[in-house]
Amino acid sequence: MLYMFWAFPFAIVAILINVVFGAIPALILRLLHLGKAADKWVFFHNAFLSDFLLFLLNVHPKVSGNIEELRKLRREGKPICYIANHTSMADILLIDGTLALGSGFIAKSSISYVFPVNLICIASNCVFISRTSLKKSARAIQKGVQHIKDGTPMTIFPEGTRSKTGEIAPFKHGSFKLALLSNAYIVPITIKGVRTSLEDRKKLFTRTQGKIVIGKPISTEGLSRNVAAEVEQGIEQEIKNIYASL
Fold first, then answer.
1. For residue 6, what pLDDT is reported?
2. Is-contact 87 191, C-beta < 8 A?
3. Secondary structure, 3-state, 130-199
C-alpha cells in the first residue's frame, strides 16, 4: 500500500513537468518545422529530468561497458537500435538520463490513448506498436526504421512488456526487424535492480543500485537471413546470461 501513496503522486508530478517543460516546447518546435531543434531540446530535457527523477528515487546506477563507443557511433551518424530487457518504468530513466542515449522508444499502442503521456511520447520520437494487428505493427516498425535512418536511435524492449517476476521473458524476434530493416548497429543493453526503486519499493527512503551493462555494437548491414537469426538468438542469450550474473 505504501507504493500507492508515494509512487502515484510521484508519477503525476513527473508527467506534468515533462509535459510543460518538455513535450509542449518540442511539439511547438516541430509545428514550426524545426525538427532538429526539437530533438536537441528533447534530448537535453529528458536527460536532465531523468537524472533528477533517479536522484529523487535514490537510484545510484552502475554502468559497465564502453559507452564512449556508443557516443562515437552517434557522432559519426551511424544508425543505432538499442535492444534492452525491461523490468521497470525506471528503465527508461536510465536510458534517457544515465546513458543519455537520446533515443526514441517503441511503445505499446495502449499508451497512445493515455493523455498526456501520449504527448510526451510523440514529442520524444516514440512509435506506438500494436501487437494485435500485423499490418499496424508493420507500419509502426517502418516508422521506427525511418526515425533511425533520419538519425534518431530507437530503443525496443523485445519482451513486449515489463517483466513483473524478475525473470526475462522470451524475446519477440519480430522486434529485431527494426534494426535489420534500417541496417542499424544493434546495441544490447542489460538492466537490473531498478524495479525495487519503483514498482517493488517497500520503504519510502531506500537506496537502490541499478546495474546497466552495455554490450558490443553489432552491425546488421548485409546480414543474410540465417546469420540474422543467429545474431538475434545470440543477443537474447547474452542479455539473459548477463542478467543472471548481476
1. 66
2. yes
3. CCCCHHHHHHHHHHHHHHHHCCCCEEECCCCCCCCCCCCCCCCHHHHHHHHHCCCEEEEEEEECHHHHCC
The H or E element spanning position 91 is helix 90-93
**Domains and their CATH numbers in the chain:** 2-245 (3.40.1130)
Report the relative pairing of strands 154-156 and 104-108 from DSSP bridges.
parallel
Residue 1, Cβ neighbours under 10 Å: how many? 4
Q: What is the pLDDT of residues 184-235, one digit of tens each?
A: 999 999 999 998 888 887 777 788 899 999 999 999 999 988 999 999 999 9
First to last CA, the chain: 29
Q: Convert the pLDDT of each residue in 137-168 to its tens digit.
A: 889 999 999 999 999 999 999 998 898 888 89
Find out whether 29 and 38 touch, Cβ atoms under 8 Å: yes
Closest by Cα among 183, 168, 11 to 89: 11
Helix runs in 175-221, H state only: 177-181
